[in-house]
Amino acid sequence: MQVYDTPLHDVKILQPRRFSDSRGWFAEVFNTSAFSSAGLPAEFVQDNQSFSAKGVLRGLHYQLGKPQGKLVRVLTGHIWDVAVDLRRNSPQFGRWAGFHLRPRNESGELELLWIPEGFAHGFLVLSDSAEVLYKTTNLYHPAGERSIVWNDPTLNIRWPLEELGGASPCVSGKDAQGSLFESAELP
């Protein structure tokens, strides 16, 4: 497995090795030993999967008390995935990075995104639909669930809305009521 740095410290792009033959291909997407050797968490406690239509924007989500690290993988479609550093002691506090994720990147390699605890996470579906699977390092904790509004002026995330042909993203009522970064209850 190849592990690549991103503009945000501790957020990583992972490329599992694929083994191909005339039947198709096989890849080991998660291995406790390989993750430990790479300095990544080796224990995940929950898998989540979502299906979303084009233009759906989920996020920016995070949890207090029981934060979740997330290993994100797109099974079908194309998303633009965003991580925001909420770690107050980080030199990158309040910074974000966005990543185009598909089942395989433009080079044909599998790609996963590792987002550690202490980050907000969200994504925008750019294809007709997308299925996203992510493993988490902690169980869902409803009492600690928080959200920052996707279009927060302080974060100024440059969502690729032009890829929606001028349409506004579709967000849940709960996400539309997310906090502003400046007043959000942060970890």
TrEMBL record:
Any one Gene Ontology biological process term?
dTDP-rhamnose biosynthetic process
Output a single Gene Ontology CC term carried by this record: cytosol
Classification via InterPro entries: RmlC-like (IPR000888), RmlC-like_jellyroll (IPR014710), RmlC_Cupin_sf (IPR011051)
Per the record's keyword annotation, is tRNA processing included, yes or no?
Answer: no
**Catalytic site:** H61 (proton acceptor), Y134 (proton donor)
Site Participates in a stacking interaction with the thymidine ring of dTDP-4-oxo-6-deoxyglucose — annotated at: Y140
Does the keyword Transferase belong to this entry? no
The UniProt keywords, alphabetically, are: Isomerase
Q: In which pathway does it act?
A: Carbohydrate biosynthesis; dTDP-L-rhamnose biosynthesis
- Catalytic class of the enzyme: isomerase
Question: Reaction catalysed by this chain?
Answer: dTDP-4-dehydro-6-deoxy-alpha-D-glucose = dTDP-4-dehydro-beta-L-rhamnose
EC number(s) on file: 5.1.3.13
The UniProt similarity line reads: Belongs to the dTDP-4-dehydrorhamnose 3,5-epimerase family.
| Function per UniProt | Catalyzes the epimerization of the C3' and C5'positions of dTDP-6-deoxy-D-xylo-4-hexulose, forming dTDP-6-deoxy-L-lyxo-4-hexulose.
Assembly, in brief, is: Homodimer.
User: Under which name does UniProt file this protein?
Assistant: dTDP-4-dehydrorhamnose 3,5-epimerase
Question: Which organism is the protein's source?
Answer: Edaphobacter modestus
